[in-house]
Amino acid sequence: MAEKNKNNDRSDLNKVPFSMRVRPYLIVAPSLIITIGIMVPFMMAIWYSLTNYSFKLPSHKFIGIANWVNMLGDASFWGAVKISLLYGIITTALEMLIGVGVALLLNNLNNGLSKVLRVLLVFPLMIAPVTATIVWQLMLNSSVGIVEKLLNLFGVYNFPWAAAPGTALMTVVIIDVWINTAFIILLVLAGLQSLPKSPFESAKIDGGSAWFNFTNLTLPMLKPSLYIALLFRLMAALQEYAVIFALTKGGPGDSLMSLSLTAYQKGFKFQKFGAAIPFILVLWLIINIAAKRIVNLQRAAQKQAAGLED
Amino acid sequence: MRKLLSVMMATLIAASALAGCGSSGGQPAGTGTGADAGSKAAEEAGSADAGAKASETPAASSGEFDWKKFDGEEITVLFSEHTYADAVEEKLGEFTEKTGIKVNYSSMPEGNYFEKLNVELSSHSGSIDVFMTGAYQSWEYATAGNLEPLENYIGTDLTSPDWNYDDFIPAVIDALKWDLVPGHPVGSGSQWALPMGWEVNILTYNKRILEEKGIKPPKTAEELLEASKALKEFDGSGSYGLAVRGLPDWGTIHPAYMSMYSTWGAKDFEIENGKLVSKVNSPEAVAMTEYWVDLVKNGGAPQWATYGWEMCGADLGAGKAAMMWDADRGGYTQNTPGSSNEAGNLAFGMVPYPESAGKTEADMKSNLWVWSMAMNADSAKKEAAWYFMQYFTSPEFMLWSGVEKACTDTPRTSVLNSDAYKESVAGAEGYYEAFSTISKDASIFFTAQPYFTETTTEWAKTLQDLVTTDKYSSVQEAMDQLKETMDELVSDLEVE
């Protein structure tokens, strides 16, 4: 009897419709295909970094870690790491500071003017970074630029901007901040407006100061949004290519040759892909480490904001 | 963990973009037909001389030339945005009407044109049939097997009897021939491309400003330096004497700098014991570069290191730069009526020669740039592509584009000598005289080798360091270091 029941169970199992049986696989399929689509070029990148792959050669061959060894022994590599880190950290820090400050002001203002400002502040995000950079290049031009005319009023003439290594980084940072601060403003403003009102009302009844409210209520509850903004901006800033390329192509000298620019130059201009890819993989590693750290902080902040953890 | 994974995925996309681009578009380089084409081209280049073949073979079989032979075929053309390309685009309809060949035409700005072209050609997919190139770039493409040798078509029955090969100015057509041996001069071997237009690099000056300041148009390098220094801030902050390019790429080296470098008697490379050896630290090269650094520092644009040809031309046209040393057509286009503030005030000089180095007018040398069109070795429609190339390099088309479409740097002798052409350029003072004088000794003064882009980029970066930093204690030190870098870059080249 028991044997019979067991057989019945099996036949029941076989009666599960085909559509039900394949459903789990169908649900997973899109993400699986996307993952494969991402991983194939990535694995190919690793493979090419171990070859002498070049547009100029009729074929390529495995050369071990020669490209990696050459890169590590190349002074321009360490310079590129420094430029990428400096650019990423300085632009992100400035954009976070200005973005959060402006978002807090707009949130408090909350009138007709703030509504107009919210629309205007998004304008830089609507312009392609290359176009924005060319506009800035004209504004900073020592012959016809409006910024030069303004500086002349203060007795400053022929400020070199991107034309001198000492001021080139500052110039591209200014342009990046102009373009991308609006992104932080938008994210933080959305975060501020989603905060619950009751804690602030309680604090008001208890007579809490504005500083007390900011440090004890706004900031802790806003932290998850801040980390998200930080994550996106830092990742993009470390990879930045368009602003630097459009303004100076990495010059003067090597003063703005970041990892992205160096990889582009070696890969597309000099047509040496095997030598270029290690630079971009190092950039990936740096971004990965930074992103992992920020994601951990964001998770902790989210728990804290939800009152699950002190 | 899931969040971490999603972050990793996002960064993976960015990291793999480079490889994705490189591998997109088809088979790996190693298995492509380009490899075969490259070796085949190398064999042919070694034995064939395109010019000799063209002269020996009758231009075409007798009888009416069949322009409709490839009726119904479709080709793809990629050009860099330029006056020459505009002229071609305007006549595409007439070409299709005459031949029945449909043309998928696209063009893009010069800034990233060659990078885009590199990717297309390296895929060996034959996605482009005809494209624009320069002589320097053709050294790299021909070595990689991307270019179809044109002697396979010139002088065969695929060429119209009206298309006259011998009518091309010898220096210009020869600039597009090379035998693929690094270090060998251009002018022999296969014909890798056909000229669309060419540029000599001469001084353009604003005669209004020079007259107002009581300065004579400079003829020598010493006069140029003196005039550039005297014209510093001639019209307030931001105005300056001489516009020259300064970006960190080959474009900074090839126009004015290389012209003066060659006039001074310096060479980029020489062949020693079967190897290319850089000569950028020779006494002539160092003396010339010392002069150049002084010229740019004290007479150039305050933001020189960010200047390409567009900015140089714009400043000359706006009256912010009193002089410019760049491609002749850069000044010419600023001088046509209505094109700029200073249109009509610009005049053309020659190549300033260094008297202090014992040079005279007879030593003036202008480095050549030749915008050309070439055929992709992987094209599946080579005959139709050749029809396109011969139509748009024909004497008839070039006379029209030279006279009507401001393609004044004509590569054809018949156009240069025509009354219609002379009349069309008569409005630009000194232009015809300068162009016809300088073109006699104009040539490509770079050594033909497939690492041209790398070596000139390093060269331009060194110039930027010399002008904008105190990185080097002397020009000699900088050029010694540059020589080492250039030697290393070309170290794998064997010169037979």
Q: Can you describe what's shown?
A:
The complex is a heterodimer of chains A (310) and B (496). Chain A has 310 residues and is mainly alpha-helical. Chain A has two domains: 2-41, no CATH class; 74-305, MetI-like fold, CATH 1.10.3720.10. The N and C termini of chain A lie far apart (60 Å). Chain A has helices at 2-14, 18-48, 66-72, 75-109, 112-121, 129-140, 146-153, 165-193, 198-205, 210-239, 242-248, 259-269, 273-305. In chain A, helix 6 (129-140) runs parallel beside helix 11 (242-248) and helix 12 (259-269) packs antiparallel against helix 13. Chain B is α/β, with parallel strands linked by helices and 496 residues long. Helix content of chain B is 45%, strand content 13%. In chain B, a hairpin with a 2-residue loop joins strand 9 and strand 10 (275-278). In chain B, helix 12 (283-299) packs across helix 20 and helix 16 runs parallel beside helix 18. Chain B is globular, with a radius of gyration of 23 Å. Residues 1-62 of chain B have low confidence and may be disordered. At the A-B interface, helix 2, helix 10, helix 12 and helix 13 of A face helix 1, helix 2, helix 6, helix 13 and helix 20 of B.
Give a summary of the structure in a few sentences.
The complex is a heterodimer of chains A (310) and B (496). Chain A has helices at 2-14, 18-48, 66-72, 75-109, 112-121, 129-140, 146-153, 165-193, 198-205, 210-239, 242-248, 259-269, 273-305. Chain A is built from 13 helices and no strands.
